[in-house]
Design goal:
Shape: elongated
Largest sheet: 4 strands, antiparallel
Helix content: under 10%
Strand order of the largest sheet: 1-2-3-4
Structural class: mainly beta
Order of helices and strands: EEEEHEEE
Strand content: 25-35%
Oligomer: single chain
Radius of gyration: 19 Å
Distance between the termini: 67 Å
Number of strands: 7
Length: 136
């Protein structure tokens, strides 16, 4: 049984936002999904839903953020909300999970805002680690 490919609406325009991390083809922004040009014929499985971080309080991944993710660089995600209501910031990068497919992997933010008055003592330079006092 052959799959029928969806036909584009005549006169519609699609904007390329980057290169597919799997096959190198163009990546397009749909209404709620970013997908590879080769996704329709099943030769590439790259597809990322724009609302994949909705459970953490982020409405959608913007086109600008997706452009950065496609260059294999992390993006800063601010104002995410944990289950207990705590607000946090972190970095996010593209990842491909064996079971769940493409998503955004979260890891601690490496960007320290020097103007923040709430920085703990010993933090001031990016990458600087606090030294543990002797006896701990």
């Amino acid at each position: 049984m052959e799959k029928k490919l969806k036909q584009r609406v005549p006169g519609s325009t699609r904007h390329v936002i980057g290169e597919c991390p799997v096959c190198g083809a163009d990546v397009y922004a749909g209404m709620n999904v970013y997908h590879c040009a080769n996704n329709q014929d099943d030769s590439c499985d790259f597809r990322l839903y724009a609302n994949c971080l909705a459970r953490l309080g982020k409405q959608k991944i913007t086109v600008e953020e997706m452009k950065v993710l496609l260059t294999k660089k992390p993006i800063l995600l601010e104002g995410l909300v944990k289950n207990d209501g705590e607000v946090f910031n972190c970095d996010g990068a593209l990842r491909n999970h064996r079971e769940w497919g493409w998503g955004v992997r979260l890891f601690p933010a490496r960007r320290i805002l020097r103007s923040s008055p709430n920085l703990p003592p010993g933090f001031g330079k990016i990458g600087e680690r606090r030294k543990k006092p002797k006896g701990e």
